[in-house]
Amino acid sequence: MAIRAPFREAVEDYEDAVGDRISHTAIWRLAHEAGEQMRQDEAAEVEVAHAPAQPGEAPGEQRVAQVQPVVEQGNISSDGAMILVRGEGWKEVKMAACSRVQVLPPTGTRPGQSPGRRDHDPRVVLDQHSYVAGLWDADEFARYQYTEGLRRGLDRVQILTSVNDGAVWIRRVTQTNFSQAIQIVDWAHASGHLHAIAEAAWGEGSALGEQWVRARLEELWTGRVELVVQAIERIKGRRQEEAVESDPANYFASNVDRMRYDQYRQESYPIGSGTVESGVKGVVQKRMCCSGPGWRRKRADGMLALVGAYHSGRFMRMWRRLSHRAA
Fold first, then answer.
1. Strands of 123-134's sheet in order across
2. Residue 95's closest CA among 55, 131, 56?
3. How far apart are CA 15 and CA 73, in angstroms?
4. For the segment 194-218, what is each residue's pLDDT rounded down to a tens digit?
5. How far is the CA of 124 from the CAs of 223, 224, 297, in angstroms?
6. What is the mean predicted confidence (pLDDT) over 115-136?
7. Which candidate, 34, 40, 36, 41, places its Cα nearest to that of 2?
8. Which residue of 17, 156, 186, 190 has the smallest Cβ count within 10 Å?
9. Strands annotated E in the chain
């Protein structure tokens, strides 16, 4: 209960469900002890996953026990979210979300609805999500992302994609851990960057700017990314300062090979990073961004281990293991 709600609310939920009393301190202590132990277990798995090859170890031997492994097509996406850490200020939690990918028949345009871009494309559905999150820098996060991928069998799937917002650290980590992954820039982020560039060039609500965005989205959707880059460069020639600020680090030019949306549609790959973004909100921020002075770092990391296990559907298995040790 403390995983889903602040400790005081967890006390009320417990008393309503069980009909007995429990102190706020007891739930607080139990949650933190369990979270700390779960994080220690995760860290031990990370060490096993990254240990040098051992004498007698067969090539490709499975080092991490698989849980609900993905078989054919999977996706791994990563993102960050800010939480308040006591004495440190706002710090970034880095999260990875692993999912199964299913390809279903297209729905077509529904009666009464405006046509959508993917109405006649096969439906690409992501489900069976699992999460790992912590207060890590990019390199430490990479170790946990890799281990979670092994746990879900993503190193063995036939097709692996990775849809993200285009952040350089995510690209680097994922390329290092899963070089076979087809990296894709999230369509909504790419679209948002185009709107920001147009607003910088022509002002908010400009009809000319909207016309420019529509033309660029059509080019992007049909795989003509180079034309989008050229159009942005022409704008920079007229409104250099504003356009550069709206296109940090030449976002489109540096992501050309990750924006082949015509190919992704043809191959029935996902083009949205909504799984990890909803995970950031529903798994991390919903529990970790409550009012108050913030979390102490160690306790925050323990709670992140708990919420990750809970929302991945493996909390009870881990809880039984902890209870067995305590017995």
1. 123-134, 89-104, 73-85, 159-164, 182-185
2. 131
3. 44
4. 998 888 888 889 999 999 999 999 9
5. 19, 22, 38
6. 86
7. 34
8. 17
9. 73-85, 89-104, 123-134, 159-164, 182-185
Which of the four pLDDT bands, split at 50, 70 and 90, describes residue 326? low
Main-chain phi, psi angles of 259, to 5 degrees: -130, 30
Instruction: Compute φ and ψ for 200, nearest 5 degrees.
Output: -65, -35
* Cα–Cα distance, 195 to 37 (Å, whole number): 46
Q: How confident is the model at residue 14 (pLDDT cuts 50, 70, 90)?
A: very low
Strands 73-85 and 123-134: unpaired
Give the phi and the psi of residue 130 in degrees, each rounded to 5: -135, 155
0.70 exceeded by pTM: yes
Whether residue 316 is predicted with pLDDT greater than 90 in this model: the reply is: no
Tokens coding 248: 């940090």
Band of residue 173 on the pLDDT scale cut at 50, 70, 90: very high
Instruction: Judge contact between 100 and 124, C-beta under 8 A.
Output: no
Q: Phi/psi zone of residue 81: left (φ > 0), alpha (ψ -120 to 50 degrees), beta?
A: beta
Cβ(31)–Cβ(7) below 8 Å: yes
Which residues lie below 8 Å from residue 305, measured CB to CB, with a gap of 6+?
35, 38, 39, 42, 134
* Average pLDDT over all residues of the chain: 85
Q: Are 113 and 319 in contact (CB under 8 A)?
A: no
DSSP category for residue 295: B
SS3 111: coil
